[in-house]
Design brief:
single chain, alpha/beta, Rossmann fold, 2 domains, 6-stranded parallel β-sheet, 14 helices, 16 strands, 35% helix, globular
């Protein structure tokens, strides 16, 4: 098959690529290995370069990538739909003669790629990795209310309007006129995505947690979104892992509150147990200042999520994923894939892979004391934790099987009528 994958960021060139970009890189690589012709369409934001300028290059000498510069936003609607990309997309689709388009994210490139595929008679499908079609903060976390979890604790229309105002229109006073403008913007956005979703040849999501939320928001019938856990490359734990002193904990990911870093630091406060952290440079100097005062904290700075994972996971015995919300939890799966048990929040998509007492431990989301107790339990029960290593792959989907599942899905879909 000739396939086009659409994603807002793509490893390995983006060193700070998140879980979606890493996953798409692995998926595309596997589909190429299985004999399919695959192109990647991605975007970046370079204000000094011409708007809609493109870069074309190859990843690993066999994956063609088209990277579009999206540097102009003349209207708020262009955050999710724009027409100035249509000529470029039509040319790409015509020259590529694709059998299908698989969209992983609309950020930057917008929904225009789906509309252009529809006009060209090419079936497109969507994998939802987060909640961006209806939540401008992606993860249903309200940072303006001390990281309030809307999916878990509930929310209303006024909450969405206030969050939208803070995120995109803070320069406007929040009066009745602004409220009506935001309300119309939000309703138009949700309705527009409903149309894009309705015309999709297939919809997939990586977890039952995510599917349930989309079904509620867009009133989708059961089964419209197929739960397809993201595939991952499986690895064996290095044979010399036993030489590492017990117990060494690790954290990988962004140094930010949504990822539960504040919770993590509270849990490890005054413990003798070493905690090693890898992640993007902290935005606030307070993190580094605090780390210097805690002899058990070891911050190693940013890491290359493509090339450094095996080395990092060989240096720790447990990985902690204390996120307030994860629709899937790619870091937890990466840890398990490398034979490292996980201590994770009991919310979102993570409990679908981390089984308490079998391949890791779960603790109450947002509860630092519960996390601290899990850490202390793991520290005092090395044999129980080591026994979990043999079960770390139990609930993972190997990338080859996942890639074949998607190829089968592509072959059984067709473009809906215009």
């Amino acid at each position: 098959m000739k396939l086009l994958h659409v994603v807002h960021e793509f490893a390995p060139f983006e060193k700070k690529t998140g879980g979606t970009g890493r996953y798409v890189h692995r998926l595309v690589r596997e589909q190429v290995r299985l004999g399919h012709s695959v192109t990647v369409l991605t975007q970046h934001h370079a204000p000094r370069d011409p708007h809609l300028s493109t870069q074309r290059y190859f990843v690993e000498d066999e994956i063609p990538v088209v990277k579009v510069n999206i540097s102009r936003f003349d209207h708020p609607d262009q955050l999710y739909r724009r027409s100035d990309t249509n000529a470029l997309f039509h040319t790409l689709l015509r020259e590529g003669n694709f059998d299908g388009v698989h969209i992983h994210h609309f950020i930057g490139l917008s929904t225009s790629i789906a509309e252009c595929a529809m006009e060209a008679g090419i079936p497109y499908g969507i994998t939802f990795h987060d909640f961006w079609p209806f939540c401008i903060r992606y993860h249903m976390i309200d940072y303006g209310r001390n990281d309030y979890d809307c999916a878990r604790l509930g929310y209303g229309e006024e909450d969405c309007l206030r969050c939208l105002h803070q995120c995109h229109f803070p320069q406007n006073p929040f009066n009745e006129a602004t409220r009506q403008f935001l309300l119309e913007y939000l309703k138009t956005r949700i309705a527009h995505f409903a149309g894009i979703i309705d015309k999709a040849a297939f919809l997939t999501g990586p977890s039952h947690f995510l599917r349930k939320i989309y079904e509620e928001i867009y009133h989708l019938p059961p089964g419209r979104i197929r739960v397809e856990p993201l595939g991952i490359d499986l690895h064996n734990a290095p044979p010399d892992k036993e030489k590492i002193p017990w117990a060494r904990f690790g954290y990988l990911g962004s140094i930010e509150s949504r990822k539960g870093v504040n919770l993590l630091l509270d849990a490890f406060r005054d413990l003798d147990t070493p905690l090693h952290l890898w992640g993007n440079d902290p935005q606030a100097p307070a993190f580094r200042d605090f780390a210097r005062t805690q002899p058990n904290l070891h911050y190693h700075g940013p890491y290359d999520a493509v090339n450094d994972l095996a080395k990092i996971f060989s240096r720790i015995q447990l990985c902690i994923v204390p996120s307030l919300s994860e629709s899937f939890g790619i870091t937890a799966r990466e840890s398990l894939a490398h034979g490292v048990p996980v201590i994770a929040s009991d919310w979102g998509g993570m409990p679908e892979a981390v089984i308490h007492g079998r391949n890791g431990l779960l603790f109450e989301v947002g509860n630092a004391e519960a996390l601290r107790k899990a850490v202390c339990y793991a520290t005092g029960h090395p044999e129980e934790i080591r026994q979990m290593i043999s079960h770390t792959h139990d609930h993972l989907v190997p990338m080859e099987r996942h890639a074949r599942n998607l190829i089968s899905l592509y072959k059984n879909t067709s473009a809906p009528p215009l």
